[in-house]
TrEMBL record:
Transmembrane segments: none annotated. This is 2-dehydropantoate 2-reductase. Its EC number is 1.1.1.169. Residues 3-185 form the Ketopantoate reductase N-terminal domain. GO terms for biological process: pantothenate biosynthetic process. GO terms for cellular component: mitochondrion. InterPro entries: 6-PGluconate_DH-like_C_sf, 6PGD_dom2, ApbA, Ketopantoate_reductase, KPA_reductase, KPR_N, NAD(P)-bd_dom_sf. Residues 247-384 form the Ketopantoate reductase C-terminal domain. Belongs to the ketopantoate reductase family. GO terms for molecular function: 2-dehydropantoate 2-reductase activity; NADP binding. Coiled coil: none annotated. Keywords: NADP, Oxidoreductase.
Amino acid sequence: MRIHILGLGPIGCLVAYHLRRTLPARHPITIIHKTQRMAVMARQAGNIITMETSGVTITANDFDQETADPHDEMLPVRNSKSTSTNPAFAPKSNVTTPIESLIVCVKAHKTLTAIRDLLPRISKDSTIVLVQNGMGVYEHLIQNLFRNQEQRPHFVLASVNHGAWLKEYLHVVHAGAGDLTFGIVPDYHGRQFEASLPDLNLDDITPNTHNDPSANHYLSLRNTIAALSSLSVLNTSWKSMYDTHMTMRRKVVVNAVINPLTALLNCRNGDVLAHKSGQNICRNVCQEASNAFQAQWKSELKDASNAGHDVGDAQFPEALSAASLVLECKRVAELTRFNYSSMLMDVRRARDTEILFLNGYLLGLGRKHNIYMPANNLLMNMMDLRSRIPLLS
Ligand SMILES: CC(C)(CO)C(=O)C(=O)O
């Protein structure tokens, strides 16, 4: 199987590095550079990814390379009088081979455009793994790129909380060990990927025999889950979609507190909850998020009950209570106290941020269920202002 990695930030590099060192060489790994310039830089540096932990660096090599923007080479002549018949305008990268497995580590707000460029190579037999901060990216893709359920690729959603940063292009520092949880989005055909719960079994995706008439359709999904599961160094675990969603909801709240506050205040993660005022904001954001989750929970139970399912006396999960979310924010702020959040880094580099998929996602949920969310709304507006008013150096 060939795996493509899209997005070579810290997490993309970490995943690519460990996949290359873990999987046998017969499984090629292609890293997709954003621009030709980056591809050239990578080639000059020996086509390697360097991983650094506690000052020790190790490299992985033998990556195949592609460039995401096929028109990138046009840039130097874009303002000339040349026409599209000029050979200088011809796309340099015309890779058309189908993509089996695509691990997407670009930022939430960049995902749609990044995947759109690869659409001709993605089919219903491909598997896309979404590894990024935030929630709502999958829904965004479905609405805009993959409306036809029958033609949709397989989707895996992942939540990652490793601490990592890039020292330079393709040189990642693994600063804090965490884990990587992932789950398979239910498919149109209703295949029971989680049939063996409480255990999960690759054979439920497609058995490793010749008995499954749909084996070809599910092979990339099975292989992708197997490859991710083999990364024990990254503490990867395949979980049910229910558990994966739970992890993602808790993480989106943590990011909705720490990321905008650090970006607005230009401070480290540890600083925001070290003071009473920061704790108050955190409590309000968590309370609002919990209210929205609870309203969503009730509405889903009602739907399930209307559809004739026995919902018994299902209780709202304690893990989504405001108190538990506050504790999680404190835990992560403490664990990553010396880090600069990804949103602060985006602001410093004058880049767009993931706010729409963090507080924006929570606000969307609140709107749907009529929950008043002033703290999240204020953070959203403040971040909007932040992106319009550059940081003074
Ligand atoms: C948890 C946190 C805040 C760690 O820095 C993070 O995920 C981010 O920076 O995006």
